[in-house]
Amino acid sequence: MSAADFSSLSEPQKEQQLTNYIKGLIMDGVRNANSGHTGGAFSSVDFAYTLFQKHLNYDPDDCRWYNRDRFVLSAGHESMLLYSLLHLQGYLDMDELKRFRQLGSKTPGHPESHLTPGVEATTGPLGQGISMAVGMALASNIAAAYLGEKVVNNYTYVICGDGDIQEPVALGSCQLAGHYGLDRLIVFYDFNKIQISGEVSRNDSTDIAQMFRAFQWNVLEIDGNDQMAIDQAIRQAKSNSGRPTIIIGHTIMARGCATMEGSEETHGSPLPHEEIAATKEKLGLPADQAFFLPTEALEFFRRRFDALRQGRKSWEQEVQQASGNAQFASLFDQFARGVVPAINFPDLNQKMATRKAFGKLLEAAADSFVAFAGGSADLEPSNNTTGFMDKVGDYTRENHRGRSIPFGVREFPMGAITNGMQLFGIKSFGATFLSFADYQRAAIRLAALQQIGTMFIYTHDSIYLGEDGPTHQPVEHIPSLRLIPNLLVLRPADGGETAQAFQFALQSQRPTALCLTRQDLEPVTATYYGSGGDFARGGYVLRRENGTLGIILIATGSEVKLALDVAAELEKSKGCGVRVVNMPCCELFDEQPASYRDEVLPPAVARRASIEAASTSGWYKYIGLQGVAIGVDTFGESAPAKDLEKHFGLTTEMVVKTLESL
């Protein structure tokens, strides 16, 4: 079909033909890369096109506008569908579509929010997209409660597939969405009944509609390839009050293909060349032209742009008028611009558990930092988030000003939801025991990949939690978390350093994992920070050697005091100076200039040891192969903490004996 032919079509015919052009872009992008997913993108295209063309509120000139509707492609393997729409919106050049899945392009195999303009969340690991969307909708409600519904009134839309719904993380998140009554969350479930290995019926016979009704969702079932039915369903969903909506779209995998409609072979592979040619002929596309999109068709899609720009201007006027109120202006800076206000933190240089120090810091932040929310996985008393909860109140379907989020025993959904809240612009935290970090590891990884500042709070950080035993005693978790690129693992040595770590995490644009103790710790870092020490260094000399430096001890968290005691004993027995280096964040230390790292850990001093009540893996990069790594390389035991301390050789006397070989 030529450009002139397109211009002569009626409006409904133009809608259909533009949808066909999008299918052409999808086929050509996947075929050009010789990699990707065509079938699911074809079955979702009618909903995506209708949403973007008729309902989605955005600014064509600013993909980061605060009050924009959020669209999350939870079925991230359908990325060429999203990239095609981003081109129609003006956020991506056609050249980027042609570079799909190529090194250095803005069109990677799955959408990445930090890389591609217009992508709201990094998706692909199934279930997490819809879960992050729950977090966005939750954050939007909180922001609207403080800024007003004239300033925050956006919707959150999702396309998900069978794989998303089968992932437990999505089900846990959707339970919470229904419980919270997130009625500005609208999910389209592309129920094409095909997965990469074949028909969904091979592994699932759940009544999805009944399940979501039980979750307290509004459920609509339609022909998911009928654009008129889709338009009506979205309108109905937007008029719904008190419940999120799932639109179950009964669709056909690879709908529109010449001979391969309904085939699982279209799911994870490019269409064969002959199938593409035949499909283009069927859809009225020139078979000899790749990435074909007439200017007239692009202009037809963009005919809403003037109205969208005017909507942005009207919103700016609302904000400007409201900003005459100083309280609103301060809140707008927090919610929309990410400004962390001044916070009056307490003095925590006293004997206490670092989890208790964290609780006091949370309470202090609650007073002035309103764009700050989070909660615990049913461990409020143990995680010390109860005081925060008492101050700010629980978020409920009736109380959107509540900023304590009761997640229940849902660690992975909590991680994904807090990521979504963070993506929306609310500084977010989720707390649980460190031994359960593995439950939410995939969410931690996506936070690190997206370069967002979610705070993952972990208490009971070692064998010192005692009697609960090895099921709850983290051993490999801290070194394992340190393996995740871009994640900052913070293990403070006392209450004062917990304050430093907490303040750093509040300002961080990267995710942080705070590892905190159950047991009380003596204050040991006050002198360093009192003399201008900087937590952002990641590691520093806490105790200078007496005499010529001969031995370096490196420790973190609860073992820093042990290292100080050991150093004093070693200087007596070894007759040489012993330095203690506190390493509350290895990642930050590794990013310091080589001159600073060499100043803290002089290369000429080879006699080194590390002390941490965790697996010793990872410490040899600092202590060398001849160094001594003291830790716990087995699972823990169920016993009182003092007995475990002796059992694992973590007393001053036993560590000194272990280090006799240095």
Structure notes:
The chain is 43% helix and 13% strand. By secondary structure, the chain is α/β, with parallel strands linked by helices. The strands form five sheets. The protein has a five-stranded parallel sheet, sandwiched between helices. A five-stranded parallel sheet has the order 9-10-11-13-12, with helices on both faces. Strands 15-17-16-18-19 form a five-stranded mixed sheet. The longest helix is centred in the N-terminal third of the chain and has 23 residues, at 11-33. The protein starts with a helix and ends with a helix.
Key structural traits:
19 strands; five-stranded parallel beta sheet; single chain; alpha/beta; 43% helix
Q: What does the secondary structure layout of this molecule look like, with pairings?
A:
Layout: H1 3-7, H2 11-33, H3 39-54, E1 70-73, H4 79-89, H5 94-98, H6 128-147, E2 156-160, H7 162-166, H8 168-180, E3 185-191, E4 194-195, E5 198-199, H9 208-214, E6 218-223, H10 227-239, E7 245-250, H11 273-283, H12 295-301, H13 305-322, H14 326-337, E8 352-353, H15 354-368, E9 372-376, H16 380-383, H17 386-392, H18 411-424, E10 427-433, H19 441-450, E11 455-459, H20 477-481, E12 488-490, H21 495-507, E13 512-515, E14 520-521, H22 526-530, E15 540-543, E16 549-555, H23 559-574, E17 577-582, H24 586-590, H25 594-600, E18 608-611, H26 620-623, E19 628-630, H27 641-647, H28 652-658
Parallel strand pairs: 1-2, 2-3, 3-7, 6-7, 9-10, 10-11, 11-13, 12-13, 16-17, 16-18, 18-19
Antiparallel strand pairs: 4-5, 8-14, 15-17
Helix pairs in contact: 2-3, 2-4, 2-11, 3-4, 3-10, 6-8, 6-18, 8-18, 15-17, 15-21, 18-19, 23-28
